[in-house]
Design goal:
The chain is globular. Helix 2 runs parallel beside helix 3 and helix 6 packs across helix 7. It starts with 12 loop residues before the first strand and ends in a 23-residue tail after the last helix. It is α/β, with parallel strands linked by helices. Helix content is 42%, strand content 18%. A five-stranded mixed β-sheet has the order 3-2-1-4-5, with helices on both faces. Strands 8-7-6-9-10 form a five-stranded mixed β-sheet, sandwiched between helices. The longest helix has 27 residues. The protein folds into two domains: 153 residues, 2-Layer Sandwich (Nucleotidyltransferase, domain 5); 171 residues, 2-Layer Sandwich (Nucleotidyltransferase, domain 5). The structure holds 5'-O-[(R)-(carboxyoxy)(hydroxy)phosphoryl]adenosine (KG4) and zinc ion. The site of 5'-O-[(R)-(carboxyoxy)(hydroxy)phosphoryl]adenosine (KG4) has 20 residues, from helix 6 and helix 7. The site of 5'-O-[(R)-(carboxyoxy)(hydroxy)phosphoryl]adenosine has 20 residues, from helix 6 and helix 7.
């Protein structure tokens, strides 16, 4: 198969484009070096509606995508011609939002006669760890914790993955967002819960999370319902309660189980490295507890910088680089997909 990487001596330059939800991102990397990282977000507008409105997201991407890509190329100090490949998120995510990024990337790659790379958004989150630790090599175990997914994955090699377990219902980020809404906090709720939790203590009783019996799986709907019931009961009885204590108790419950099972997975698979990715990994409490647990277990922890945990195009470029080196290029018929299995690179049609 044609692999332009083999013909070039310099580290490849990849343009990454991300538009799966409410962030329009464009980044340029050379090897694992980040040359530029641009983002335009419609989160402020979405916050007025308490969550992401798909049509607003699509329109915002349409407005922003060309400007963001232009800025990324300019700030990287390169010419269009120096780009070796265009990597774009083709799923999973909001279909209309994805279509904007995919269509733009296709037109851009076609016009410049550059190869196109289709990136699974989740694989992008997994590849964020390589940005901070370019020497990172599989095997390792990864905690994936985002708004749409919660899973523990075993990466055997850059092309082989195994899902050790995942959520049986809500994703952990979704639970943060829903609990935030109940506590009257704006969207996106995760950072708001983290901020409020710092003022509280974990003194509100929360239901037991799926532990040993659940293998590596998780369930967040019970925890979410318990918080809703606690707040509503207090309000109905006219009793006051501390929202900070509720936020803190929820955060501990939601995160402790993730940390515990990630370390367990690493021990069972016999790896010496743990990585993490997804928006919830920006959470300071998660980062601290995972670090402590890994230190205690003698495991090396590679955490992406917070900006590379939430949606961004640099992680898409980072995964694009892996696919580039594997020679996995996408056809010009590439289409967007609302859902893709967690570990798939590019599904055949
Ligand atoms: O990975 P991401 O940006 O988008 C998806 O692919 O889903 O994750 C977004 C999720 C949201 O649910 C958001 O509330 C959560 O990540 N999040 C956080 C924090 N920052 C973002 N959750 C807890 N603490 C944070 N600091
Ligand atoms: Zn994401």
């Amino acid at each position: 198969m044609y692999n332009p990487c083999k013909e070039k001596k310099k580290e490849p330059i990849i343009l990454g484009i991300e538009s799966s939800c409410d962030e329009t991102g464009a980044s340029i990397i050379q090897g694992r070096k980040v040359l530029s990282d641009e983002i335009a977000s419609s989160a402020n507008i979405q916050a007025l509606y308490g969550g992401v409105v798909p049509e607003i997201a699509s329109r915002a991407h349409t407005d922003a995508v060309a400007k963001v890509v232009e800025r990324a190329v300019k700030n990287a100090g390169i010419t269009y011609d120096e780009i070796d490949a265009v990597a774009v998120t083709y799923g999973a995510g909001l279909l209309g939002a994805l279509l904007v990024g995919v269509s733009f990337a296709k037109a851009f790659a076609y016009a410049l006669n550059k190869p196109l790379i289709a990136v699974n958004h989740i694989r992008g989150h997994l590849s964020a760890s390589y940005l901070d630790e370019p020497s990172l090599k599989p095997p390792f175990v990864t905690l994936l914790a985002s708004g749409g997914h919660t899973a523990i994955l075993y990466t055997k090699s850059e092309a082989e993955f195994e899902i050790l377990g995942g959520t049986l219902d809500d994703a952990v980020g979704e639970a943060f967002d829903k609990v935030a809404r109940v506590l009257g906090l704006p969207y996106p709720g995760g950072p708001q819960i983290e901020r409020l939790a710092k003022e509280g203590t974990p003194c509100v009783a929360m239901p037991k999370m799926l532990k040993g019996g659940g293998g590596y799986n998780f369930s967040y709907s019970g925890l979410k319902t318990a918080v809703i019931n606690y707040c509503h009961t207090k309000e109905q009885k006219g009793e006051s309660y501390s929202k900070a204590d509720v936020a803190c108790s929820f955060q501990c419950s939601a995160i402790d189980v993730l940390v515990e099972k990630t370390v367990l997975g690493a021990k069972e698979k016999g790896v010496d490295t743990v990585t993490a990715g997804g928006g919830v990994v920006a959470n300071g409490y998660l980062r601290e507890t995972l670090k402590k647990a890994c230190d205690k277990a003698g495991l090396k922890l590679v955490l992406p910088q917070k900006r590379y945990c939430t949606d961004n195009a640099t992680m898409i470029a980072s995964e694009g680089l892996i696919q580039y080196e594997l020679g996995n290029f996408a056809p010009m018929s590439l289409n967007a997909k609302a859902s893709i299995p967690l570990t798939v690179t590019l599904e055949s049609k």
